[in-house]
Amino acid sequence: MGESPGLQEGGQESDNTIPNVKLDLHYVDPRLVAMYEDANGRGPDTEFFLGLASQVEAETILDLGCGTGLLTRELASKHRRVVGVDPSAAMLDYGKRQPGAERVEWIHGDSRSLPSGADLALMTGNVAQVFLEDEEWNATLANIRAALRPGGHLAFETRNHAARAWEHWNRDATFGTSETPHGPLDEWMDVVSVGQGRVVFEGYNVFRATNETLVIRSELRFRTEAEVRSSLERCGFTVEQVFGDWNSGPVTSQSQVLVFVARR
Ligand SMILES: C[S@@+](CC[C@H](N)C(=O)[O-])C[C@H]1O[C@@H](n2cnc3c(N)ncnc32)[C@H](O)[C@@H]1O
Questions:
Q1: Which domain holds residue 70?
Q2: Do 119 and 59 touch, CB atoms closer than 8 A?
Q3: Where is the Methyltransferase domain (predicted)?
Q4: Which of 175, 191, 192, 259 has its CA 20 to 30 A from that of 169?
């Protein structure tokens, strides 16, 4: 598409104060943050993590990359200590204004800010894919491990490399329009490059009322099941289960998601 007068290029932004963390504009622009839960609402993933927390009888839960805290707020109850950690001040600010927020301890930070002694640590919404370099990923796993009590669990999902989701990330397959408080918004995705397990793509956001176009460049790491397994094991975790869907089904080449449950 041609450049519109309101076109803005946005890539990874440094959002205020967390050293060495670059955030996508999705997690910084207040308009996009306010729409995040409409596009990423409650689903079978929410049920899975709630069920796991009950199954392992977790009393202290860490939610790393909690974002607006849709799951975090639901996990928090009188009987549990739930800590939501995220480097995006805008995502946290939105979450803190939602019902149930008062039951959560919110921390503006990353894995270096996790308190210790937890029964369960979670990374939901494909947070695991934001760690592009192995060094960053390994350091994050080590920080999570240090924050868990011996025997504590770590659970997270990542898109399945083998299903090659990025092959559908084009305008035809992803175009959609939604009504927003800022008027109609057209959105679609386009892949820029794929290589070495890394996918660079652009998210287009066209606010029709103002003819403003935000083009947000993002990069995600797609690790294979074997790569995730060995990174967990090298860090001292035992991989207890790997599921291929949110109903605890097996992994197949068609599985869109890999759900890992590991134990310190
Ligand atoms: C797709 S959102 C997922 C939010 C939430 N977990 C959910 O399921 O709705 C990804 C989140 O990861 C956070 N994030 C980005 N870089 C991070 C990092 N280095 N450490 C922890 N979280 C990070 C973003 O700020 C954002 O809130």
A1: 37-160+223-263
A2: yes
A3: 61-152
A4: 259
Q: For ligand 1, say whether the CB of 75 is within 6 Å of any of its atoms.
A: no
Considering its fold, how many domains does the chain have in total?
A: 1
Cβ–ligand 1 distance for 148 under 6 Å, the answer no
Determine whether the shortest distance from the Cβ of 23 to ligand 1 is under 6 A: yes
CA distance 190 to 164: 14
Instruction: Give the CATH number of the domain where residue 75 resides.
Output: 3.40.50.150
- CB atoms closer than 10 angstroms to residue 215: 18
**Torsion 117-113-259-262 (CA) sign:** negative
Q: Is the pLDDT of residue 8 over 60?
A: no
- What is the per-residue pLDDT across 181-203, written as a single tens digit (0 to 9) for each? 889 999 999 999 999 999 999 99
